[in-house]
Amino acid sequence: MSHSVLLLALVVVAVLAYWVGKSRALSLVGGGRGIRNLHSLPSYYGFMAALWCAIPALIVMVLWVSAQDTVISKLVLSRLPSSVQSLDAGQLSLLKNDIRNVVSGAIPAESASPEVQAAAAGYRQLRSIADLSLVAVLLLVSGLGLFLARARIAPTLRARNSVEGVVEFMLMACSTLAIFVTVGIVLSVLYEALRFFHAVPVHEFVFGLKWSPQIAMRADQVGSSGAFGAVPLFLGTAVISGIAMLVAVPIGLFSAIYLAEYADRRFRSAVKPVLEILAGIPTVVYGFFAALTLGPFIRQLGESMGLEVASESALSAGLVMGIMIIPFVSSLADDMITAVPQSLRDGAYALGATRSETIRQVVLRAALPGIVGGVLLAISRAIGETMIVVMAAGLAANMTANPLAALTTVTVQIVTLLTGDQEFDSPKTLAAFALGLVLFCVTLLLNVVALRVVRKYREQYE
Amino acid sequence: MNTANPPVPENCSTVGVVTVENAVLSARGVDVYYGEKRAIKDVSVDIARNQVLAMIGPSGCGKSTFLRCLNRMNDTIEGCRVTGSITLEGQDIYDRSQDVVPLRARIGMVFQKPNPFPKSIYENVAYGPRIHGLAADRVELDEIVHTSLQRAGLWDEVKDRLTQPGTGLSGGQQQRLCIARTIAVNPEIILMDEPCSALDPIATARIEDLIDELREQYAIAIVTHSMQQAARVSQRTAYFHLGDLIEVGETDRIFTNPRHKLTEDYITGRFG
């Protein structure tokens, strides 16, 4: 019996337990009008019985399933002839794999050695016993739970409180799970980054001017010494994000001002969703656009003016990234501008200020902290953006701020370092984690600052 | 400049005398529509120099709407339409040749909720003179800010912290700052839309004293929910009911001897 069927059966048993618990509670007080004598509504007694029935069984099942394979393997190995027992650990684990593959049918049984075939048969037999006994144990545990719950049910039992306690615990578990996952990600990145910093000193990474993450397999290979100075990557990221912000901030901000202050309602309701569609375009598609349309166009344009432009230029990646971020900036700025109370505008109008004076000197002034926060969020978005730059910005870690040259960013290098064949003992691969750590710290800092600014501003007008 | 009062439409149903000798602003047969809804019906009334006109009436009677017509603040509300004529010293303020910017500099307004700009106290007061170019240099601007704050009775409280944000003042101080801001552009008329409704009694008393002093230089129209306030600060009172101007007259006369049944009911507290 497969585990999903078992789970389904457990659900059915829990539903059954619900009815048992509920009808037990009702029959204790004589049903109908007797409900008022119960501490909780009848359904809470049902839920309590179902929880008592299902939760211990579920825990047993999880433990059993996670332990089953190890236990059975041990048993199978201990039954093998002593000649096999004396093998060293590596060969033993190979043998274990063979047995497992025969059991799962990945390799035909005929091609295996007689010992392996025998062991596989033993494995199968043990597993079917284990499966059967799991069913039996689960039935026992859930039945016992139901029995105990039914015995406990009395009109004075505070079923609602205990059910709500369990629900609260589950809610808490879900929220802590999210936190733990985040912490786990940070720790794993941190751990690998520390390994990298054992191989490459921190100052060399942070201040080094040459990025060339090749490690030779043999000593006589070309480029045998890797260089891990990340400054060209930081510079490339800064240049491309800077170009993106040069596009996104003015266009986003001005369109937000127009939509919030000047446009009539019909225009606004038509244009705002269209602007937000930009946010829904997958970044890969933006990447196509940058690499296949804008990049060659910029190169042709540059050549016609006598400029030398790389076909994968920082300019095309930055421009397209800017377009991607426009809706982000504009919708945040729009929120901030509309949050400025009408009374401030009225105050300015009543003094004889024109519309543009009111917007420039009063509305934007009031919305400024929020807009700054939005822009900071957009910057952190730009720094972390990967797909567009992978497709459009190139891989050359040039130490230049020239937007017409090919540049590379932190995210692009992480992708290239971690795709293809890996060896996790080389600084080349581990460098990706160090870069990831830097990226994480920078965007975290930007987000924290931005959120603080935005929150402070929101409080001001509530 | 004293122009003859525009004639009052013959079908005017308002009880009492709507005209005054030295009118500065005259409304004649004013209707205000919000979309299809007629919020103000055929209102004619004068606002006189050196006098406070109080507008009272139950909630939703249109007194604030009418007040906002007088400096065309209703222009910013979508679907709002004003017919009839409102003349400022003989000049129709809804005339197509009339620019609202200088108009609002001549007719200032103070709102229900204090709304200082997110700027310093100094900049709040200096804002109007700046945008209208009233001060030639910094010295003159300082002088305007000084006198305006002084006239608003706020100078002594804020003279040491002019650079601090205006939003940091107390509610009553903020409202006096808004009054200082309004008089800094030297208007002829000040409109006040329930200026004390967000303030405590002590701050209210200060504002009321201030209104009485300001009357010496400006024409004032004040919308208020408090009949006591109307009685204390105004010389003439207008009673609005469901968009109609029911009765206008000397404040003493309105409160002691109302002629219209509705006015009497409101003043004696039968509704409102």
Keywords:
heterodimer, A: 462 residues, mainly alpha, MetI-like fold, two-stranded antiparallel ribbon, 16 helices, 2 strands, 77% helix, 1% strand, B: 272 residues, alpha/beta, 4-stranded antiparallel β-sheet, 33% helix
What is the topology, as strand order, of the major beta sheet of chain B?
Answer: 6-7-8-3-9-10
Biggest interface, chains and residue tallies: A-B, 21 and 28 residues
CATH architecture label of the largest domain in chain A: Orthogonal Bundle
Helix segment tally of chain A = 16
Structural class of chain A: mainly alpha
Strands of the biggest beta sheet of chain A: in what spatial order?
A: 1-2
Helix content of chain B: 25-40%
Overall residue-averaged pLDDT value of chain B: 89
Name the assembly state: heterodimer
Low-confidence stretches of chain B: none
CATH H-level homologous superfamily name of the largest domain in chain A: MetI-like
User: pLDDT under 50 segments of chain A (min length 5)?
Assistant: none
Helix percentage range of chain A: over 70%
Radius of gyration of chain B: 18 Å
The amount of beta strand of chain B, in percent, is: 15-25%
> What is the N-to-C order of secondary-structure elements of chain A (H for helix, E for strand)?
HHHHHHHEEHHHHHHHHH
Distance between the termini of chain B: 40 Å
Helix-strand pattern of chain B, N to C?
EEEHEEHEHHHHEHEHEEHH
**What is the alpha-carbon Rg of chain A in Å?**
33 Å
What is the averaged pLDDT score of chain A?
Answer: 86
User: Total number of helical segments of chain B?
Assistant: 10
